[in-house]
Write a structure and sequence with these properties.
Length: 99
Amino acid sequence: MSAQFPNCQVAIVPATAAAIVGIAGQRILRKVVIGGATANATVQFKNAATDTGDVLLTLSCLANDSKEFSFDDVGGIVFSTAMYCKPAGTGAIAYVWYD
């Protein structure tokens, strides 16, 4: 939870442990902060409970930087099956706010 998104849950997903966000079922992506520690970072979000789903969104940031992406002004991005988060890049990490 955060002051900006008081009803949301937060998941922390490092590149070393791509994972389903929350549990299987519909999820709404509200906000993502990604960071690329020593390499450029890319984060894919798939509409699935595993790494086999369709990629609905890909976000990137440069090494030694972080970027914040908010989708709340458009009502979030709906993942109908589940939300799988797959960061890539040395030291990359994704902070995910979701319903």
